[in-house]
Amino acid sequence: MKHRVLFAAALSAIVLSSISLAQSVDIPVLKGPYLGQKPPGLTPEVFAPGVVSTGAHEFAGSFSPDGREYYFTRRESRQSPTLIMVTRCVDGTWTAPEPATFNATAAGPNAMSFEPMVTPDGRRLYFTSDRPRAGQAGPPGPPQLNIWYVERAGDGWGAPQDAGAPFNPMQVMYVSAARSGTIYTMDISQGPAGAAIAVLKPTASGYGAPERLGPPVNDGSPSMYPIVSPDESYLIFSRMRPGEAIDQVLFVSYRNADGSWGEPRALDLGMRAGTPCVSPDGKYLFFSGGERGKGDIYWVSAEILRSPAQTR
After folding, report:
1. Diameter of the chain by CA atoms?
2. Cβ distance 17 to 294 under 8 Å?
3. CB-neighbour burial class of residue 256 (10 A; exposed 0-12, middle 13-18, buried 19+)
4. Angle at 187 between CA 192 and CA 16, to 5 degrees
5. Which residues have a Cβ under 8 Å from the Cβ of 3 and sit 6 or more positions away?
6. How many C-beta neighbours within 10 Å does residue 203 have?
7. Strand locations in 154-272, DSSP E?
8. pLDDT tens digits for the chain (312 residues)?
9. Angle at CA 21, nearest 5°, toward 15 and 22?
10. Alpha helical stretches, state H, the chain
11. Exposure letters 109-144 (e unless 16+ CB within 10 A, then b)
C-alpha cells in the first residue's frame, strides 16, 4: 500500500505542476474528420492548436470508434481541477471542448478525472479518478486514484461506476481494451519504479488478476501507458529512461505468429512522449508530448509504427 500511495503522490505532483492561462470557449468552425485538421506526416505536430492543445496542460486522449467524439484531459492551473474534456461532431461541425458530465468536480476544487479510454465497441469509457469509493475512509493525504467507467446511454453516458477488483484499490492505471475483451494496463501495485505492462483477461464474473507480460515487453525498467490495437496485433507503451536527454520514450511491439510479443522498437518522436492512443481508422498515433506537467497532445502518421522491413 505504501508504494501505491507514493505513486499517487508522485503523479499528483506532476498533474498539479501545470500552470496556464484560462482559455476562451470561442473556436473556429471546424468540419471534417479529426476536427478538420490537416493530417500530419512522419513528423509529429500539435493536434488542434488553440482548440484541444492550448496554454493549459493537455494529455491522454481517445476517440469514439466512429471518430465523432474526442475525449482528452486538461488542467488549466494549480487552482483548477483535472478534467476530462469532450468535443463532438454535430451536424458536421465540431463543438467547443467542454467538461464531460462524469467528471468528479463535486469531490473538491482539485478533483481529478483523467486518462479517458473508449472501448472498441464504443459501449464503455474507462478513466482514472480520485472520487471516493463506497466505504472509502481515512485521513487526508495523497489522492486515492482508482479506475472508474461509464456505459453508453443513448447519446451520452450513464453514472460513473467503480470498476472494483482487480482494478482497484489502486492496482492499475491506463486501461486499453482489445476487441476480445482483454484489457492491457499499467500494473502499479509495486510502485512507480516497478510499473509494468499487464493484461486482465475476461472471466465469467468479470476479470482475472493482472498478469504481467514477460520480456521483451517488460525489461525491468518502468513500463507504462499501454495501448493495444483492437485485434491485439501490436502494442504501444512508454518506458522511462532516467538520466537521458529524452527520459520517456514510446515503444511499439508487434505480435509474432506464435502469439509472443516481438522486440519493442523505440519511436523517434523527437521529444518525451507518453499516454499514446491510435485513431479508430489506424492511420494516426496520438500522444502527450512536451514539458513535464505542461504538455500538449501531438499526432503523427501511424506509418511511424512500421519498421522499414514492414514497409517493403
Report:
1. 59
2. yes
3. exposed
4. 45
5. 188, 189, 190, 191, 192, 194
6. 10
7. 156-157, 161-162, 172-177, 183-187, 196-200, 202-203, 206-207, 211-212, 223-228, 234-240, 248-254, 265-266
8. 545 544 544 454 444 333 333 344 578 899 999 999 999 999 999 999 999 999 999 999 999 999 999 999 998 877 778 999 999 999 999 999 999 999 976 666 667 899 999 999 999 999 999 988 887 654 456 678 999 999 999 989 999 999 999 999 999 999 999 999 999 999 999 988 899 999 999 999 899 999 999 999 999 999 999 999 999 999 999 998 877 778 899 999 999 999 999 999 999 999 999 999 999 999 999 999 987 667 899 999 999 998 655 544
9. 100
10. 2-16, 308-311
11. ebbbbbbbbbbbeeebbbbbbbbebeeeeeeeebbb
Sequence-distant (≥ 6) Cβ neighbours of residue 271 within 8 angstroms: 44, 246, 289, 290, 298
- Here the cell at position 276 is 499514446
Cell of 36: 478538420
The verdict on pTM exceeding 0.85 is yes
Q: Let me know: does 212 contact 219? Beta carbons within 8 Å.
A: no
Total residue length of the chain? 312
